[in-house]
Amino acid sequence: MRARSAVLRLCVVVSSLLLAACGGGGGSSAMPAANLAPQPGNGAGSGAPASVAFTIQIPSASSSGSKRRPRYVSAGTKSASVTYGTNRQVVDCTTTCSLQMTVLPGTVTFNVGLYDASAGGGNLLASGTTTTTIVPGQQNSVNITFAGVVASIALLFGAGSVAAGTPASVPVTVTAKDAAGYTIVGSDPYGTPIALSVDGSGAASLSTSSVSSPSSAVSLNYNGSSNVSALHVSASVPGTNVAAQSPALAVQAQAPPAGSVPTHVTTYYYYGINGTNASIPASWMAAHADYVEDDGDQVAHASAFKAAGGKYAVSYTDPAYVPYCFAPFSGPQATCQGQVGKLVTDESAWFHGSDGTRTRRYVDAHFGYQEVLNPASAAAQDAYRKTTQAILANGPIDYFFADDAGGVYIGSDGTEMTGWFWGFNAPGTEITTDADFIVANKKMLAAAAKPVVLNGSTPYTMLPSYNGAWLDSPNVMAQNFEGCFSDDNGAVAGPHNNRWVYQSNALLATYAHRTNAVCMMYANPTPANRVYEMASWWITYDERYSIAAPYTSYPLKDGFTVVPEYDVVPRQPLTSPSGDVSSMRSASGAYVREFAACYQAGAPLGPCAAVVNASSSTESMPILSGRYTSSLVLDDASEYTGGKANWTGTIPTSLAPQTALVLR
Fold it and tell me: Which end of the chain has fewer CB atoms < 10 Å from its terminal CB, N or C?
């Protein structure tokens, strides 16, 4: 909405007999202020009451900004109040505010307030005070200046970035709005000046720290320091709670030497396991993936990947729940032929219910039942050790994926049945406390012949279990999050069960342990969902620890999962979350993260940004620090079959529920 300035006219008529009309006067913008204009009365004495006609013209919200006048009245004005002495009178407004009052001649102080609701209610938009002497029998002229009351502030830099090492002065536009959402314009002072500050570790200063009126000029002066990646300017109104957008100006570092920027972010793809991406040549895979995961047997694809120069090979293991188990479930005839289970030599390796039989849950006719390994058992630890050693004998594996090994023992209702034994016939009797389970599971994970990628977390918060008790172990390389930024039905994560926020904070909690976090995305891989999950991941992205694992189990239409959007590498974030993703939420409601330098397949793109609406309602496009011209558009095909990530999209003014943009 665009505010309009207007001329305030008050006509004061001093008369003991009748009220004269307020003259139109033409409303010239050259008028220095609003007028209280008493007209000569009919026989009024020096002590006779004076009748006052009070009129304010309310500007139209659609008026042209080119016709702004130097005095401010909000187009959102719905009522006005006039106070003098102990009297207060209120009038509702349409295109004008008109009020009659009786005032004794002499020195009078008028306090006028404009409001965004009827009957002097709602929010104060502007106020003015003047003291004047009302003289009967002659025309009086009184000036009133309205001061806009600031309710929100937006800052905008006159440049998208400055070059590191080169001093520069950048204009800063300060836009203040009243509580009705109209921009406060004109040259008159705000009700309270706006305070400004800059945080750039001494790399910049402001031309002024106080903005007294809409016409005040501000500039940010950068001294050329190369020790910062961004300069942050904050605005506030002392003594009030004002919504203020605090942008950051990117300090653009010198371009890195050719070849020093990775051609993609750190990626993790299935390669061979469940047949995923199995037909892609190993040399092509080595150029597009940092980690590949193969099955838990011959690991032929992982071996070929390593032979082609691939970085890290991962093999699947199941140290918690073992499949291919069939009746009977007790005694010497009990058998379980799953990966680890077939190497078990002692019954103590299993959890048992109070009836003495192994705890179990039915999967299907092929997998039979799953049974639960007891991590406190030396026999179970030995079976897991032998399993990983056997895989290593088949190929050059760097890490093992420890499926389901990162959950909690006691669940949300205080029982094991909503924790480790969810879906099973009974809880195990061998371990009864979280404390004992933490110690036992740490020993189980340490039995692996190589460090593990820990799969599983606290189910009701998604946070690493037990405050990350296992993440600091030397044998845990990463925390994996299955269904990262997606739900169990192939949709992207949003406000339901607070899933998007929980996932973001779980990633941050993992980084706090200086541990890698694998974001394994499971949403239906439509182009829109892919942009949403990518942008969501960027909001908390940490180049040191973030690993993208897109669509491991849900290939695109062409049957592959290697996608082109992760060739875009964001660097030099202007802001980073401070332990909780809420710090990245903008005034519009959308989450925002901007980066000073971005690359695609190693080529520079300039600044880029991620904007995510994780809510169930439409959000307006937030004000961004950078100047972006296009958004990312994805082909509905994998990178292996020629799918592209193009910058051909427009930038809308709003975001639909659970949608996102990546901008450059």
Answer: N
